[in-house]
Specification:
binds protoporphyrin IX containing FE, 4 helices, mainly alpha
């Protein structure tokens, strides 16, 4: 039985799960009191710690597919660029996004003034837009496999 279709399906589901919080969070991060809403809490968790867990799943399913297709695929420019972007996104998630989200929740709990909260939320929205764009580019590269050079 070929594991490839199962791995590919799991990989694509994980890719969508990685993308969703980055796309949706900017919309819910608009009001200070919105941070206590269950949906916002779920999305902030998914964008924070969730990103690192989901990204690990992507690496495991991706590596398994690489082993099936042959490691020579790693010489393909589209995969090299996609994996570089993937690494950058992980660093942004761990070093910028997750701590920022924690601070935002902390500010809400502490009843910080709206200006401070709004400034932080705006920063996080831009981070989320950036992460969503990078994930979109990775998905495009892995689906179309363009001849980059
Ligand atoms: C944000 C991260 C990622 C996204 C959004 C993503 C997205 C995708 C998508 C949409 C496909 C299906 C392409 C198709 O239509 O056949 C795919 C295939 C694949 N991905 Fe990823 N992926 C990600 C991370 C990774 C990582 C980290 C690896 C390697 C360690 C990887 C290795 C692969 C491989 C080997 C395939 C199969 C390519 C083929 O069919 O020739 N991906 N990926």
């Amino acid at each position: 039985m070929s594991w490839f279709p199962i791995l590919l399906a799991a990989h694509i589901v994980l890719a969508v799960a990685l993308l969703l919080p980055s796309v949706l969070l900017p919309f819910v991060l608009r009001r200070n009191d919105g941070a206590s809403h269950p949906a916002t809490k779920a999305l902030t968790t998914m964008q924070g710690t969730g990103t690192l867990i989901i990204a690990t799943g992507l690496a495991i399913t991706g590596t398994a597919m690489l082993l099936i297709l042959g490691p020579e695929l790693l010489t393909q420019p589209w995969l090299l660029v996609a994996l570089t972007l993937y690494g950058i996104n992980l660093v942004v998630a761990a070093v910028i996004s997750r701590p920022n989200l924690r601070r935002l929740i902390g500010l809400s709990m502490a009843g910080a003034d709206d200006d401070t909260w709004s400034r932080r939320a705006r920063q996080q929205r831009y981070v989320a837009y950036g992460m969503a764009s990078v994930i979109g580019v990775i998905g495009f590269l892995m689906s179309t496999k363009p001849n980059l050079w």
